[in-house]
Structure formats: structure tokens, C-alpha cells
């Protein structure tokens, strides 16, 4: 049976050195962390896109607008009222009544 010293020496020889192995593990952890962050960011973007698309459809149906026109109304309302597009879209989707920011924007453009 080998003692710990022999095991450490064998591992160091196999990996080149303990320092090289440690550096390789650290790099792998950094890559894994960056990959996780990117995946989380992409998931948030996808979730935002879904709710925005739903809001466009709702506005198009409620006000007999084209989908692109509904998006422009949503975007103008979010900008003019200093709201995040996703948050306003979530309100359109989640509430039975049209948000006042959307109604104000539609009145201005009429």
C-alpha cells in the first residue's frame, strides 16, 4: 500500500505538477461559471421575448392593430413612461385591463 507522499508524487507526475493541476481546475471552474452566467442571461432574454410577444398579440387583438404596430405602441409607451419594455408587457399579459400607459400612447397617436 502506498503512503500519501507516494500518492502525491504519482499524481504530480501524472498531471505535470500539483500547481499545473490546480491551475487547470481553476480554469475549468472559471469556464463553467461563465457558461452558467451566459445560460442564465439567455434564459432571461428568452423569457422576456416570450412575454413581449404575448403582449403584442393581446394589444393587436384588443385594438385591431397589426402585430408590428402593437409592438411600436408597446415600445413607445414604455419609453415615454420610463418603464422597462418587459415589465410593461408583463402588465399587459397579467392584467385584464389595458395599462393606462398604453391607453395614453394610443390616444396621442389617434
Can you put this structure into words, describing what you see?
This protein starts with a helix and ends with a helix. It has helices at 4-15, 18-63, 67-80, 85-94, 100-109. It has 110 residues and is mainly α. 84% of the residues lie in helices and 0% in strands. The mean pLDDT is 88.
Approximately what portion of the residues adopt beta-strand conformation? under 5%
Given as residue ranges, the uncertain stretches (5+ residues, pLDDT < 50) are none
Number of strands: 0
What is the oligomeric state here? single chain
Query: Roughly what is the average pLDDT, rounded to an integer?
Result: 88
> In one word, what is the shape?
rod-shaped
- Cα separation of the termini: 87 Å
Rg from alpha-carbon coordinates: 27 Å
The helix content, as a percent range, equals over 70%
Taken in chain order, the helices and strands follow as: HHHHH
**Largest sheet, described in full?**
none
Amino acid at each position: 500500500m502506498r503512503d500519501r507522499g507516494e500518492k502525491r508524487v504519482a499524481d504530480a507526475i501524472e498531471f505535470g505538477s500539483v500547481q499545473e493541476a490546480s491551475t487547470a481546475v481553476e480554469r475549468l471552474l472559471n469556464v463553467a461559471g461563465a457558461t452558467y452566467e451566459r445560460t442564465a442571461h439567455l434564459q432571461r432574454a428568452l423569457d422576456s421575448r416570450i412575454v413581449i410577444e404575448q403582449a403584442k398579440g393581446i394589444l393587436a387583438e384588443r385594438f385591431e392593430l397589426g402585430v408590428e404596430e402593437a409592438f411600436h405602441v408597446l415600445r413607445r409607451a414604455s419609453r415615454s413612461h420610463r418603464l422597462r419594455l418587459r415589465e410593461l408587457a408583463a402588465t399587459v399579459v397579467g392584467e385584464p385591463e389595458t395599462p393606462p400607459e398604453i391607453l395614453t400612447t394610443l390616444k396621442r397617436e389617434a
